[in-house]
Specification:
single chain; 101 residues; alpha+beta; SH3 type barrels; 5 strands
Amino acid sequence: DTEARRLQKKGKSDCRTRPLWALYRDVVPFQALPLDQPVHPFQLGDQVLVKKWRRDPLTPWWDGPHTVSLISQAAVKVLGSDKRTHHTRVKWFLNPNPETE
C-alpha cells in the first residue's frame, strides 16, 4: 500500500499499481470501524429526537425530545423506552427557546 501511494504521489503509475488503487478505492468505505470508541457523538444526558418507524400522514417524522440514558458502540437508549435505537435514527434536539429551560 505504501509503495502504491509513493508512486501515485510522484505521478507514476504502472500496471501493478492501477488495480491496487481501484481495489483500495472500492474497499475502504466498507472497512470496519475500530471498537474502542463509539461511532456517534451522543453522550449521557443529551436531548435528542428519535425517528419514528411508522407515522400517520401529515404528522412529524421525529418524536421527542428525549434524554439519552445509555450509549453503546452504535446505539442510544433514551429515558422512557426499553429499546435501544441505532444512532442513525437519532438527531440532536435544538431547543428553539433556550431561555425557557
